[in-house]
Structures are given as C-alpha cells and as structure tokens.
Amino acid sequence: NVFFHKTNRFYCHFQIKNLIFHTTFPGSTFEQAKSHPRDVAVLSPEVKTPIPGPKSKELMGHVQNFQNTKALSFFCDFERSKANYLVDADENIILDCFQQISSMPLGYNNTELIAVGKQDNLQNLLINRPAMVTFADMNFPRLVHDSLLRVAPEGLSNVITMGCGSCANENAYKAAFLWYMRDRRGYELPPAEDDEAYSSCVMNQVPGSPKLSMLSFEGGLHGRTLAALSTTHTRPLLKLDMPAFDWPIAPFPKLKYPLEEHESENAKEEARCLAVVEDLITEWSKRAPVAGIVVEPIQAEGGDNHASDDFFRKLRKIALKHSVAFVVDEVQTGVAITGKWWAHEHWGLETPPDIVTFAKKMFIGGYYFNDKVNWKTPSRIGNTWMGDPAKLHLLKKTIEIVKEQRLKDNAQHTGNYLTESLKSLENIHSTALEGSRGRGLFCAVDVNGSRDKVVKEMLQRGVLVGASGPNSIRFRPSLIFTPTHVDIAMDRLDQVLTSVKI
Amino acid sequence: NVFFHKTNRFYCHFQIKNLIFHTTFPGSTFEQAKSHPRDVAVLSPEVKTPIPGPKSKELMGHVQNFQNTKALSFFCDFERSKANYLVDADENIILDCFQQISSMPLGYNNTELIAVGKQDNLQNLLINRPAMVTFADMNFPRLVHDSLLRVAPEGLSNVITMGCGSCANENAYKAAFLWYMRDRRGYELPPAEDDEAYSSCVMNQVPGSPKLSMLSFEGGLHGRTLAALSTTHTRPLLKLDMPAFDWPIAPFPKLKYPLEEHESENAKEEARCLAVVEDLITEWSKRAPVAGIVVEPIQAEGGDNHASDDFFRKLRKIALKHSVAFVVDEVQTGVAITGKWWAHEHWGLETPPDIVTFAKKMFIGGYYFNDKVNWKTPSRIGNTWMGDPAKLHLLKKTIEIVKEQRLKDNAQHTGNYLTESLKSLENIHSTALEGSRGRGLFCAVDVNGSRDKVVKEMLQRGVLVGASGPNSIRFRPSLIFTPTHVDIAMDRLDQVLTSVKI
C-alpha cells in the first residue's frame, strides 16, 4: 500500500500530560529515526467517539447559552495537543492538516515557543497593554528588526502591525486611498484654508471623502469587516444582508489542472480576466476610480484557485500602467507554506507589490509597504493597540526555527509529495477526485459528490482537513508536516472514497 | 496648598529592577499608610530630560526606517513602570493619567496579573492560536463564564469576542444589519430558490446586499476600519481621502457645564438633537434605512461631550419606536472608570441596549447582545481568531481585583475629587480653564488657549494626560488612582497655567 507503508519503522511512545501518544518515527533505520526532532513524531490517529463527541456536545450546550454555536466543529484540548496532532475534548487524537485555519506554523505546543511565552520580554507586553500608536515599547524597534523585518518581502522596507487579517486589509486599502489621493493631487494635504475638504470628510462627503474603489476578484476572501467584506466574494452567507461598497469585481481565472497540461487554454482564460481588469479600471475612472487592486496568490477560501506566475506579472504591470496600488493578500499564503516565505516570491516580479498584507501564521496582522504608499502626516493610519506586540516574540522564534530546521525546504518537498499523492489517489478514484494542485504544502483537490461528507468522514477517521470553495478539500498543514503524515492522510482519504457513498 | 498637601505622610521607597522609586504613602497615620495596597504607592514624578528625551529620539530614528513615527509621543520602559507610574526610555518617571489611551484598568505590572500571565491555562492559548470560530478551546465556555459573563450588562446575556474596538463595532453593525433584515422580512433567510438574493450579495449588489445605514453622531469615534470610520466624526486627518459609507449623522448635544447649573437650556439642546435623530430615521427610510443607532455614553475622543441620562433614555425609546437597533459603544467608557462597570448603567434605562461594544480596559474586543439581535444561521458573524482568548484570563483576574479592592467605589470617590479639584483650579485660572466635568474618573476640562501646549507642558512636569476634541484635556487614569495622585496632577496643571503663556 503506497499510502501507509508499514516497514522500516522505529516504535516508541512519549507522554504529554496524562495522554500516552503511541508514536512511530519515520525513517529506514533506527539512527535516522532518532535524528528526527521530537516534534515530527508520527502516530496513527485515534478516534474513540463520533466527532463532535459527547464532551464537545456538552460544551456546545454551554456556549449556546451566550453565543450561536452553528460554526463550531468541536472543542480542542490545547494542553494535550502536540505538533501535528490535535487532541479534542473527547480525547480523540486527530492528525491536523488544517492547523487552526492555517494559523499554526509549527504545530501545537512547540517546545521552544513555550519557553518564549514565559519570557519576561513577552510578558511585559502581555500584562501592560501598549497603545503602540502613541506610546511604543522601547524594545519595539529591535523586536521588529528581529522579527518582521527579517522576513520583509523584497522591495518593501516598511511594516505596520494590526490585530487581525481583516484589519490588515482594511488598513492596506486605506494606505492605497491615501497614496492615490496624494499622487493625483500632487501633494500630501489640501491647503489648510481649503475648508471644504476638511469639513466634508468629517461628514463622509465629497470632496474630502472621495469616491474611490478597490478592485477585487470573484472568489477572493479578504476579511469580514465591512470594507474587507466588500472585496470578499465567496460564500453568500458571509455577505447576505450586509451593505457593501459598490466596487469593481473582476473574474479570477478558472484554470484547468494540472496546469502544465493545459497551458494554452489557461493562458487564454488568464488573458480574458486581465482584459476585464483593464476595462474595469477605465470604466470606473469616472464613477469611483480604482485606487488599488487586491489579490490572493492562491484564492485560499474561495476554492484554492491558482493562477500562473505570468498572470500575476501581467496584473502587476497593469497596476503600474494605470498607476493604481498593487496589494497582495498573503494572510493565508504567507510563512513558508508554499516553499517560499511569501507566495508572491514565486512570481519573479520585476517590480515588487506596493503592499503585502499578513496575519494567521505570522501570529499578528499587518502589512509591508514601499515608500510610495507611506503616509507623511500624523494620524492617517493607526489605532490604539496596533495589534499585540507580544506576538512578535513568537514570530521571532518561529523565523529562527524555520531557518534552522530548513522548513521552507520541508514545505516544498513534503508538499510535492502531497500533491503527487493526491494525483495518485485521483487515478485510483477517478470519478470522485480531480484537480489535484498545490504549491508546497498549500494543496487542494476537488471532489465530485459531497465534499462536506468527505471532510466529515475523514475527520471521523482522525484526519482534519478544510473545505475551500464549493467543492474543494484544502490542506494547510504545519511546516513540520512530513511525508509519513501525508501517507496517513492519504490512507484515510482512500478509505473514505472506498467505503462511503459520497 | 489644596493641591499638594505635604503633611501627615509616611515616607519609604521600594525598588523596581534597578530604578529606585521614592514613594510616599498617603494617609494620616503610619497604620493607615501600611494598610494601602502597594500598588497605590505615591511618588513625585521625576523628569530628567525633555520628553521625548534623547533615547526616545534615537528610537524614533530606528522606527522611522520602517514606519511613519509622526504619531509617537515617546517610548516606554514597560519593565520598569509600575501602577500609576510610567517610566519612559529616558528614565523619566511619569504620573500616567492616560494609561495607554485608557487601556490599563490596574496600571502597570500589577503583581497578580503578572502571575496570571505565566499560568499554563493562559500560555496554552498564547502558544496555540485557536481558530475560535470553528475549533474552540474546551476551557472557553468556563472562561467566558468566569470573565465576560460576570460583567455582562443587564439584559444582554450573549457575548462575542473580537480583536479590537474597531472590529467590535464593525461586527456590532453587522449584527444590527442582520437583525434588521430578518425583522423586516419576517424570517431568517430568503428561500433557497431565491437565486437573486444569494447571487447579488456576492457581487455587493441589491437585493442581497441592501442599502442600509447606521446612524451616528457628530463628534463620535467608533474606530478606524472603513465602516467604523464612516461613523467616526472627529479629527479630519483620520478621515480625509478615505471613501466612506454615506450614512446619516445627527448632532450630539453641545451642553453647558456644570450640567446642574444649565438644566433647562441643556434640555432644549438635547430635545433639538433627538428631533433630528427622528427626522433622519424617517428621511433615510427610502434611501438607506437606518438599521441601528450607535452612540458613546461620553464622547471619549471627540471632546468628552456628555449628555444627560434623560437624553439616552429618550434616544433608546426612539430606537424602540422606529424598531432600529440601539448600539452603545463602551470601548472607552467601560470597566468601572465611571463608577459603574458600564457607563450606560447610570442611565436607568427601562429597556437595555440591544448591543454593547467593548475593548481597551477589557483586554479584548467584542460585544454583548440580546437574543433579538442574535443570528440564527452559521457563518453570519465571525472570523478566524475572534480576538485572543488568552486575554480573558487577564480580564477574569481584573474583575476579581476590582471587586475585592472596591475599585468602582474608588473610581467614584477619587473621580468626584478630581472633578471638584478641576473646578477649584477653574476658579483660580478662570480665563484659562472652563467646563470641568466628569463621571467617576472619566474627567475632562476645557482650555482657553493652546490645549496642546498645556498637555505638553504637563508632560514635561511629569504628568501625562490626553487631548480630547479641539480644546479639552482628558483624564483616563487607572482604577487605582487615588486623591493624592489627583493632587499631584492638579499641582502640575496649576504650575503650567501659572508659569506658561498658553
């Protein structure tokens, strides 16, 4: 069985609190096995109850007293979880290929992060809530240097922190609007005697509060505050009944996979979408000029939709041609999961993006930006907290670990193995699966039939994956995911497709 | 000297790291002095350098390499700061009456919070970033019960967490929109076969994405993401060049202080504003119906503008009469600073608000809500992180301390003393000061002349206060602020007004 090879293993077990993990280290010899960091221990998932189990259901009853629980899958026992394994409230041990919606770069309870959490320099920022916009911590410049700036995308030497991905994008849009108005007017601020500009903006009226827009793509998701939501076009229940900014929306290429087998028709589809982008920019110039374009390197919630590097290079050129800001949303694609720290590094851009937004595996939200879109006057961008700087200590250590353990390489290699394994399964289950695709460990496959049932049945067999778009399964494992973990996941997917009518 | 009485004191000093604090405990006898919790130690501020000092300026130079520093006042040494005293990067010891823009209920480095920060149950949530929207922590229901629900406003049994105040308000508005549409249509969702509703909302178009509005007040501040910013009407530089939702804006009463001396003219002014609110609701019913009204109990950034309890009772009745949601933004007024946990508890409402939003001294953002505005289908409100549940452990301990140390009473008593002291100063400096006002420790006074200069000169004398609106000084001290701290602040304000031309 290609999916769960049972030979050449060294068996042992280790204990986390009072839960015994029966673990297997992959590798062909005892020595190789020993050389693996403890955090890549492999074990077979153990599911004892339906998920959600009785304990999770009881807890849902408690939450129901103060909150709608309809989005809750189950409850986690974070204390007992470790690395790639999430333990739920019913003591089920689950191989987690979703990692808190892609928020955990190193899996659960990384030993070194645990040490960082108790450090005085982190605790100072946890206990004392800085209003960073005005009263910054004296260690902040050094900390940013050792964390955020170490992984700054090429060409973007500025960075600002925010509380979450939605705030990151909202503020990136604000930066685009500020830059656009400065650029078009030729100077930073209207003269002080221009009362109309200053008084109208306070009342949300032109000219101070201009009609401007962000161009986004069908299938994109950029957050759920109302402006971010106006650039989000995935599930209707996220958007129904919500007022929105009426901003231009372009089609995102609908490509055929594997990409290398459909190059010419995919190129045509991408050209069609790029033409619409240009048309929209022109069309909206009278109505609400496009100040920026926002795009995900891979549409991470809207169906794991890929586009070619060439598409993004051309899109960047369109932004330059029309002098609009180019905003790349790397909230989900960032932090090495595609094999590079930032997914847009794959593109080979001649001119870097103007803004790159982040959150999730970065522990904190925010965005990198170039000097062009920097603001020059006070109070233009900011809020009281500017996110939580304590998290930068976790990021700093994570960057060190990713480098030391060569986890970008692991994402690339294990990711290739995951995509190849999905393709193998696609060959076996050719009516049920199609469209296997991935960049590094950022992988997906489409299901013909009930995708939700497949996700649910996999969970019941101890493997947690996510849904993406209408019919895709997404994998967002940690960066310490190994080929043997891939084998386990593929084995369970194989089991589901073999034994369950979907 | 009423402002800094020098008699009956017990002198001692204690040491934080390597900085010696020369402290004075207030009280008329040795025994009374000893009985004070250590955290109310009083000391004279010590300013050795101009603020920002050379070290702060050097650090600003470092930050300037990656971020605009125009909003930065100075850098803080959080490790050395204690209780009501903020130590800056240049070792200046500052009496902090602003507390990180009102974000610190117990001052710096509260001993009990330090212990909580290192607890395993907090660390589990710090190291393992839960995607609370789907995979909640098994200890979350209990933790919410012991923290957020212990201080739930009367009538609001539901609560949801968010990352910051802007997200709290954005999501409160979303809840209002959801409720409004459900209420007007008579059921939760359009039927599944109503393709137009579901497909139009994804493209930001009616009918799925309806024209609806939130009514806000001139002088209000509700956050800086774009929808929250559309309800914010304070400083033009926050809003200039930003597109906004065109939503109705009502005047907020401009009252004369002291309120008790101007009751009848203030009542007329409030009646005028309430009439405009009703007119706007009617007027906008065709254009973009008002789904909710959002208001601060005291306009906390826009000038510390108060309104009477009667105004808010009538405003609440208007919301009921027109069947729109009543959203009270307690981001800055919450957490005992007005003498009650929530400022709106002073109003004596017959019907509680529908939604109360919070952040700042609550450590986490979010909002309380009643069953009416709860949503019934999944995916309507939420995001990946839903704020940072680790912070709820800090809130839990804070609630215990506020109760044990009777800090609501302290806020009331010390606050009364602060307002009275401001009024005394107003009598002495009758051309420079006017409009002393406060509720508990939430206090302000207006400056005739350069308010910014007064704030700056006070800081240079070791007392940090904030600006509010065009000409007010605001006090947002911790809940452990004492009358003797008031004396120090008043002494420095007196010095400034006596010796500096403003």
- Relative helix content of chain A: 25-40%
Task: Give the name of the CATH superfamily of the largest domain in chain A.
Answer: Type I PLP-dependent aspartate aminotransferase-like (Major domain)
In order across it, which strands form the biggest sheet of chain A?
7-13-12-11-10-8-9
% residues in beta strands of chain A: 15-25%
List keywords for this structure.
homodimer, 502 residues, alpha/beta, Aspartate Aminotransferase, domain 1, Aspartate Aminotransferase, domain 2, 2 domains, seven-stranded mixed beta sheet, four-stranded antiparallel beta sheet, 16 helices, 36% helix, 4-aminobutyrate:2-oxoglutarate transaminase activity (chains A, B)
At a glance:
Chains A, B: It comes from Ciona intestinalis (Transparent sea squirt). 2 copies of one chain form a homodimer. By secondary structure, chain A is an alpha/beta fold.
